[in-house]
Amino acid sequence: MKVGLIGNPNVGKSLIFTQLTGIGVEISNFPPGTTIDIESGGVCYQREIVELVDFPGIYSLDGISDEETSVRRYLQEEHIDVIVPVLNASNLERNLYLLLQVAEYQLPGVVVVNMVDESEKAGIEIDFARLSDMLGCKVIAAAASEGRNVGDIIPVHFLTHGP
Ligand SMILES: Nc1nc2c(ncn2[C@@H]2O[C@H](COP(=O)(O)OP(=O)(O)O)[C@@H](O)[C@H]2O)c(=O)[nH]1
Ligand SMILES: [Mg+2]
Questions:
Q1: Strands 2-6, 82-88: parallel, antiparallel or unpaired by DSSP?
Q2: Which of 118, 145, 152, 153 has most ligand 1 atoms within 8 Å of CB, for mutation?
């Protein structure tokens, strides 16, 4: 199973990726000949290897930047089983544009709202149950810098998609 982490720049995708994969990361240039590196690595879960892909940060799926082009081409040309949108808890609205585009492409099984440590410090209250109802999928409130709930991300897919 191949799972891709997608989101705006600086939402914590790479930190989540590093925490889940540890070492043993492969970097591939995709599309070939571009300067955009897309890292992928293995996560072992219940004796299955899940391939996790750390996409470069993008604001939309229809732009023409190198990052947007490479992510779009990857999604079109490589097989990805599950796309996991990662949002910044302090900036939910700004992150929704990409989320809607991803949802057009593939309904997310789970959305990660990361950096809840910072939104909590800033006094931002997020009704996660309501957000989950609105989006029609599971929402994981995570703080990757503390390792909080990062381990819940992969098991969701086994529950919803099977190994
Ligand atoms: N406070 C806080 N910082 C985080 C969290 N997750 C990531 N960061 C930090 O935010 C910055 C951007 O993270 P990164 O993983 O590179 O984001 P990416 O651009 O989405 O891959 C880094 O300095 C991380 O250490 C989090 O949950 N809380
Ligand atoms: Mg990154």
A1: parallel
A2: 145
Ligand 1 atom with minimal separation from the 15 CA: 15
Of 76, 66, 57, 75, nearest to 7 by C-alpha is 57
Number of domains in the chain: 1
Rounded-to-integer distance, Cα 2 and Cα 143, Å: 23
- Between the CA of 114 and the centroid of ligand 1 the distance, in Å, is 8
Greater model confidence, 159 or 17: 17
Question: pLDDT confidence of 48, banded at 50, 70, 90?
Answer: confident
Average pLDDT, the chain: 89
Separation of CA 74 from chain center: 14
The CATH number of residue 16's host domain is 3.40.50.300
β-pairing, 48-54 vs 2-6, is: parallel
Return the residue whose CA atom lies nearest to atom 3 of ligand 1: 145
Which residues form the domain of 9? 2-161
In this prediction the pTM is 0.92
For residue 50, the CA-to-ligand 1 centroid distance in Å is: 22
Alpha-carbon distance of 47 to 150, in angstroms, equals 19
pLDDT score of 3? 94
